[in-house]
Amino acid sequence: MNGLSSLGFTVASENVGQRLDSVLSARMPEISRSKIQKLILDKRVLLNGVPVKKNERLRQGDVVAIDAKESHDVGHERARAQDIDLDVVYEDEYLLAVNKPAGMVVHPGKGNPDNTLVNALLFHVPSLSKGFEIQRPGIVHRLDKDTSGILLVAKTDVAHAALAKMFFERTMEKNYTGLCVGFRPKEHAIIDGPLGRNKRDPIKRAVHTEGKNANTEYWLLHYYSGISLVHFRPHTGRTHQIRVHCASVGFPILCDTLYGGGKDHINTLAVLERPFAHKLYKCFNRQALHAHRICFTHPFTKKSMAITAPYPEDFKAAFKALGVDEP
Asked: Pick the catalytic residue: 144, 146, 157, 256?
C-alpha cells in the first residue's frame, strides 16, 4: 500500500473477537470513529490483504494494513498556518511537545475553523506528519479545549505511527494535576468504570455497562475545606475520562460545569467550607485540570523521556491559596 504502511499491525490475543473498527478506533485516538469507518468503506484498510466490512471480527494473527494517505474529503480544506504563540517544551527531529493553553482547540473542526493548535503548528514547524485527516497534521492524541498541558506532536509519518502505537499499547504514562470539589477522595485508589456516550446528551460521556473499559488511578495530594488537590494517572484514554470518573464518585473537577463541578456543587458543601471553595473557584475560568507530564521511552533514540508542562497562572494562584508548593 501507499502511505504509512508502517501502520500495519498483527492482531494480538486481547483483540480477538473484537470489531475491526473498534480496534482501529482504540489504536488511533486522534481520529473519529466515523472517519475510521470511512477508511474501511473506501477500502483503505486491508485485513490479511483483503478489504473487509467495518464489523469484521478479528482473529489472533490477522494482519491489518492501513493506507494513511492524505484525505481529500469533500467539504474539508487544509488547515491554514497562523502566527499564534506556541509554547514548545521539547523538540527533536521526530517529535515535539507543546504546552497547550486552556481555551485552545487542538485541531480545526465544526465551529472552530481556525486559531487552533494545528494552525499554530503549521506556522512554526517546518515538517509535520500527514496524520489521517487533512485538518489534523501531526496530531497523535488530544486534550479537551479547556484542559491545559503537555501534548505530543509527530513531525514525520514514521514518528506518527510509532507514537500512535505507544498510545494504543498504553506504554505512555500520562500524569495530570487537578483540583476537585466535594467528597474527600481516598489517599490512593483506581476508579474503574466503563465509559460511553451519555444517552441523553451526545456531547457528554457517562459511566455505563455498554461503555468501553476505562480506569483512572489517582493520589490525594492535599485536602482542605471541600477542595482536593489530586494527581491522576489514566491507564486508558477515553474522551473526558478523568472528568467523568471524578464526577461519578462525588468529587468532580472544580469549575467543570459540564460534569457538575460548578457553583451549584459548592453549595452542597458544609456551610463553613463554602467560602474557601468559592475562593478557589474564582481562580479558574475553565475546568481545573492540567496535563502536567508525560513519560515514555523514545521510539527512536530509546531514551527514557519525562516531559513536563509548567503550571499556568490559574493553577499557581490555586496553589498559593491552598498554601502548598507546586506538585
From this structure: 144
